[in-house]
Amino acid sequence: MKNKLNALLKVSSFIVCSSAATAYAQDSSTMSCYWQVEKQNEVGTWENQVCENPVDANLPDVLVANRVNIPSYGICSINWLDGYRTELKGTVKVQGNKANCGGHAVSFEPAPDTRIVDGLEEKRLDCRWINESGNAHKLMCDDIEGRTLNMPIATKNQAAGSSACIMGFNDFTLNYFAGGVAVVDDKPTQNACDVGPVYFRAYPAKRMVDGFEETLLQCTWRDADAGARIKSCSNVGASNKEVTVAIEVNGKQHSLIDAVNNQLSDGEIVEDNTLNPIYPALYFRKY
Fold first, then answer.
1. pLDDT tens-place string over residues 45-63
2. Does residue 166 contact residue 160 with C-beta atoms inside 8 Å?
3. Element containing residue 219 per DSSP (H, E)
4. d(Cα 273, Cα 271) in Å, to the nearest integer?
5. Is Signal one of the keywords UniProt gives this record (predicted)?
6. DSSP secondary structure string for all residues of 125-144
7. What are phi and psi of 35, to 5 degrees?
8. pTM of the predicted structure, to 2 decimals
9. Quick count: other Cβ atoms within 10 Å of Cβ 219?
């Protein structure tokens, strides 16, 4: 049992780490930008830097910075809205000393639709910020089937045109995507204004654990009768037979894996909670 647990943890560690062996490349392009005066008086000048939308020039320009210049006090400050932008599906980058009030170049790098991380393919999820009311917003994402998850990945408080934000990141929501797990490379800070990109990493179809080959099972829930559902897996063992691995009655689930394993002669079903505690992966381990 100890060896089995260690092997599963090794597999989980291999899969969950997203910081190494990443293979993807995207070209960045310089953005066409200009300063727009918002307010000017005897004290100073308040400006916004806006850039042509890099995705579609017909869409509104993109706000990338706020600048305040008060010459009489020798004050010039700038706040940048660089980093990943959900609405653009890419990252706004600034070249130059960001503390200076001028001499910058702004570029845009689109996020890849798919990428390979640790040998596993990840697909970028379609996400959007939705204004709930006033300055409150929530980040909603679709699964790879295009269905919107009813739980927000993040929430934020941000006034229109402002670079000041209060961010709340719901990392537990990343586990609520069936068939795998959602991943975000960098956890946002509390004053961040955006999150992402968000990618979906499916469970590996095959893997080796303790010298045994394991195959990911294809399982679905279906209604049995009033108040009851059953979970069946269709590709179990060499014969690819269908077995019932769980039953849900009045919202309470009961596992049938041990009972099923007692009837299998060429292997066993393994439930791996380390990959995703909400939707654990089921594998068939062939002896």
1. 999 999 999 999 999 999 9
2. no
3. strand 219-225
4. 6
5. yes
6. PPEEEEEEETTEEEEEEB-T
7. -95, 135
8. 0.80
9. 22
